[in-house]
Amino acid sequence: RREPLALINLKKKHEETGEEELASRLDHCKAKATRHIFLIRHSQYNLDGRADKDRTLTPLGREQAELTGRRLASLGLKFDQIIHSSMTRATETTEIISKHLPGVKKISTDLLREGAPIEPDPPVSHWKPEAVQYYEDGARIEAAFRNFIHRADAKQEEDSYEIFVCHANVIRALQFPPEGWLRLSLNNGSITHLVIRPNGRVALRTLGDTGFMPPDKITRT
Known about the structure:
InterPro entries: His_Pase_superF_clade-1, His_PPase_superfam, Mito_Ser/Thr_phosphatase. It is an enzyme of class 3 (hydrolase). It holds the Pfam family His_Phos_1. One of its GO terms (cellular component) is mitochondrial outer membrane. Belongs to the phosphoglycerate mutase family. BPG-dependent PGAM subfamily. By secondary structure, this protein is of the alpha/beta class. It has 2 domains: 1-30, no CATH class; 32-217, Rossmann fold (3-Layer(aba) Sandwich), CATH 3.40.50. It is 27% helix and 17% strand. The protein has a 6-stranded mixed β-sheet. β2, α3 (88-98) and β3 form a beta-alpha-beta unit. The radius of gyration is 20 Å and the shape is globular. The two termini are 37 Å apart.
């Protein structure tokens, strides 16, 4: 609901309001800037941890985060913010990446936590969450995308560059149709780059890029 026409209450338009005024109001609601979204999957973590606080990054995972941070810094972009999942592995990944991007504010959110977005098609035999988990997680992840992935606000004058550190299931839920999300695989510390134009059109520049990592540092756990 960010199309200019959706932002104007046409019912309140007076009869004497002409097409010229309507065009002016529409123009005022049009986005002018492009948003660049960088979706980062957290680095490798301890799979044996029973609770989230125990699922900390492995030594290799910390190396991966360093490499991702250096790669982002090397792009020479003025990043506006880093929004990250509140889970331990995403928070730790963010802390390491942020060392390479001094001054960029960090924001934690529960919306980006890992989950099961939708029942996969075709189904898989090794992983079958309770049906209720799809409803709970799917609604939350959908809320995250509605909240964060959209065209720029009409007040935004310059292009923006934002980093989101989260989880594979959240990132790969972008696929259309959505039930095919498990057909995608994302490496730890990978970079997915979305571009959202002022007219709302979205382009995928890169998906799960880890070409900046040595082969022996690449994992998908």
